[in-house]
Request: fold
Amino acid sequence: MKKGILAVVLFFVTMSAWAVDLPKQGFGLHIGYAQPTLRINDNQHKDTLNNNIKMNGFKVGVVYDGSIIAGFGTSIGLNYTFGAYNSGWKTGNLYGMDYPRSRQLITYNELELFVDWQYKFEIAKETYLIVYTGPTIQCGLEWRMRQDVQTSEGEKYTPRYYSGYKSEDPDQAFKRINITWGVGAGFQYKRYFLRGGYDFGLINPFQNTDFANGVHTRGRLDQWQIKIGMYLWYEE
Reply:
């Protein structure tokens, strides 16, 4: 399954590299809002992670567009994405123990290589509506997850949990590589553009797959995003 997904992604990357050699090209920058979302479908330690973790952050990157035929083309680029989550202090249960208050803190950093196949509908002179779809390869740079608890003995807040790509608890460790498939729409006026969409995770981002012993976590890493940008160079 993973080899098949990777083969499809490489096909789109190869086709995009060919497309940008054709007329009507553009190179630009964009910045925007990102909401990486960790969706947990099955987790042995259900009290350590919420089923849906929505991290709010931003993304910034470069993009290179190329047309194949009138209206149809491709967009390929590289992004840096940051997300953060704070559950806030709340009463809860952790590792089978009740605590007066606890909170969960997460920070997430990654690089993304995206390839979008797009169609631009010209609605006025140099004005376009855009629809697009395509894969993204995400490479995690850092994932930090910490659980702070208030003990019943006093007001001292003690860090109780840390996880990342190298975790002592394999059930909470993540893979560095994730692959998504996105769909979206946008608007372009001359050199300026606005794009927004949703990326669906295609693989399980958790490392542990020891299903025989009942220790496993399954889920996916999705992402909402909206970007504004401009082409520094644009060839009609």
In short: The chain has one domain: 2-185+197-234.
